[in-house]
Amino acid sequence: MKEKKKRKLLFQQKQFLRLQSFEPNPPPVTVESRQHVPLLNYIHRVWQETWDQQILNKLHNIHPSTSHWAALPVRRHDVRLTRLRIGHTRFTHRHLLLGENAPECPSCKVPYSVYHILIDCPVFNRHRVTFFHTSV
């Protein structure tokens, strides 16, 4: 039993000495900002290549680049624009909350979507010309 206590005490002493040998506040590691730029560029390039392979991803169609997506200064406007970009609006998703069938465009016989309203539907062509000065 004494031998076991001696070994335990010796082990604790060694641990204590090991901990004392370390500096309590080591100097901060400094890396030149130019040194890690190639690594960041490589990581971003690999990320972009991986993202480019996601052709069936809905978000890839909306934002094909991995670059930063700037936010609008007014949060309410930013939320509205983001909902339009991803196609999740109260008009197009209300039926999910109410347990109803998806609303259908009467002229095209397809479910309403943000893309359909803003790009495809001939019924909204007049509005596109008025507000966006363009026609599809």
TrEMBL record:
Protein name: RNase H domain-containing protein
Organism: Trichonephila clavipes
Gene that this polypeptide is encoded by: NCL1_41912
